[in-house]
Amino acid sequence: MRDELNQGLIDFLKASPTPFHATASLAQRLEAAGYQRLDERAPWHTEAGGRYYVTRNDSAIIAFQLGKRPPIEAGIRLVGAHTDSPCLRVKPQPELQRQDFFQLGVEVYGGALLAPWFDRDLSLAGRVTFRRDGKVESQLIDFQNPIAVIPNLAIHLNREANQGWAINPQNELPPILAQLAGAEKADFRALLANQLAQEHGLNADAVLDYELSFYDTQSAAVIGLSNDFIAGARLDNLLSCYAGLQALLAAPDAQSCVLVCNDHEEVGSSSACGADGPMLEQVLRRVLPEGDDFVRCIQHSLLVSADNAHAVHPNYADKHDENHGPKLNAGPVIKINSNQRYATNSESAGFFRHLCLENEVPVQSFVVRSDMACGSTIGPITASQLGVRTVDIGLPTFAMHSIRELAGSHDLEHLVKVLTAFYASPELP
Predict the structure, then answer these.
(1) What's the CA angle centered on 37, arms 32 and 39, to 5 degrees?
(2) 48-71, pLDDT tens digit by residue?
(3) Residue 82 marked in a binding site
(4) In CATH, what number does 2-85+233-424 get?
(5) CA 384 vs CA 209, 245, 338: distances in Å
(6) 87-216 domain in CATH 2.30.250.10?
(7) In the chain, is it the N or the C terminus that has fewer CB atoms within a 10 Å radius of its CB?
(8) pTM score, two decimals?
(9) Residue 264 assigned to a binding site
């Protein structure tokens, strides 16, 4: 089971270099399991026992099963995650020609660790909007092959490199794509038009716009002397999306279950498809009872907000509170913050801990050091938007927001097991 889950995650990460591709990959897996796609612009006809999903902006997805038990009595079980990760996004007019090299100007998306982006084999993927036969269309593209690199400056020319230096994103991060000969002119939109033709057989009259991100082409892998770890890009937070999907597909038909994977968490969640937008509430209001009954359903419900946690690093153990240092391969982490950076309270934490104990899943706790700032998740945002009780949890990881992150190879199985139990739980607190 463990090996199968880890390989499934590796395959999912490879198919999901951007939030657009992650959403498409989730939708493909849902449809293969019998989930029916709903169009937000059309009327919906849903029924108890039905399984459905809806996407927005091609980058966020909500999948739900309407249980045979009335949700006004049993509530709904929600698992929340996000599809986006810190990365380098291509600017609108990105062409740079310096010293006969073709480079692209990039903007840093989210709180990325920048140093690991140097000297990596990079590819490019995302969504392209174009005109064809007088109509505006959009299509996902993925170059797949390594087409770019951001070379480091040699130590001989930067003697202070190992003492640390401030990376200037404007000057130092534009990737190199090619060497140009003579008066040759770089045309990025022509490159995209060619990719549309090669990848999809589409002959675009003009490339109008795009949302494209660079990514590392090195595949995720199970590593370590005893295969203790899984390393890969975008573990934050596609690991949680994948775990939530596996749990949802295993959910019995008695309960109403929801998996929501928002976009834009890494930049504040304020968008039409982010957790600070109306997407989840709008979807739920279309499938749950109206008025007072809707509020009653929500108050019978619980959200598990799943986003990775900081494992205690052996080289930097002093960055953790000494009593709250989660370890790799020791189970999911309940994340707690008195200032509501996490939405966990004693009741929601107690219920999640109970689920772990009942299903023989190890469980840990995380509280940030009192002299350090605390990150946040979609948990408090969704709780404030929807009024739903929430517990913030996640798997412990190293190198969060790096181009290559590290998790424990045993922990995915732990998370899937407890989320599956959550979706099947006959009663909520």
Answers:
(1) 165
(2) 999 999 999 999 999 999 999 999
(3) yes
(4) 3.40.630.10
(5) 34, 24, 16
(6) yes
(7) N
(8) 0.97
(9) no
